[in-house]
Amino acid sequence: MNSRKVIAIDGYASTGKSTLAKMLSRHYHLPFIDSGALYRGVTLFALEKGFLKDNELDQKAFNGALKGLSLRLEPDTGDLYLNGENVSQKIRLPQVSDHVSTIAALSVVREFLLLQQRQMAHENGLVMDGRDIGTVVFPNADHKFFFTARPEVRAQRRYEELKAQGQETTFEEVLNNLIHRDQTDSSREVAPLRKADDAIEIDTSEVTTNQVFAHLIEKIDAK
Ligand code: DC
Fold this sequence. Notes:
binds 2'-deoxycytidine-5'-monophosphate; Rossmann fold; 10 strands; alpha/beta
């Protein structure tokens, strides 16, 4: 029996993709990859090195520097290392959230990360969440899900998470960032956020995490 499983979870920001992907990864003993963390890592790099300043990107210098960028996701902890430094906390800062969609729209960035993401699918498979996993990264994934939820519900969840981490922000700021990112992610030319034709759509607005988990397991095991 071939037990390799590739599970792709795509969808809008803060719909619970990573939480559910982690639960599935534990349940099926598969590695979990948060592809958004990789895009956030590249964005942090562009900001820290000064390639992205006042919303202007020095594309030539950035493209050149990208070749020397090393990103590593620690499989057990999910921690992200950028040129050897653990940047797991920094990539969640609002400054990174505000610029990540701009960086994620660049074809040079998507090509750079596409290769890395494909190399992460080992013999046993994996659970990966993002925006283009079922459409571009793993179009032949065994299981594909597409998460949606009402913007206000998503913003409230994200706002509470950020507050719990001690970050200063308002509900409106969080809501505006989510709406802006969804628009940019859906309208970009390369690998836009969209539901794969064969993905199952899951609306997480009115259901608990455990209910979604039970539903996903049922779908996966039935296939
Ligand atoms: O999952 P996240 O919200 O941390 O992702 C941050 C951003 O990265 C998201 O707004 C768009 C981009 N992204 C992407 O373009 N493609 C992916 N597969 C994952 C994330």
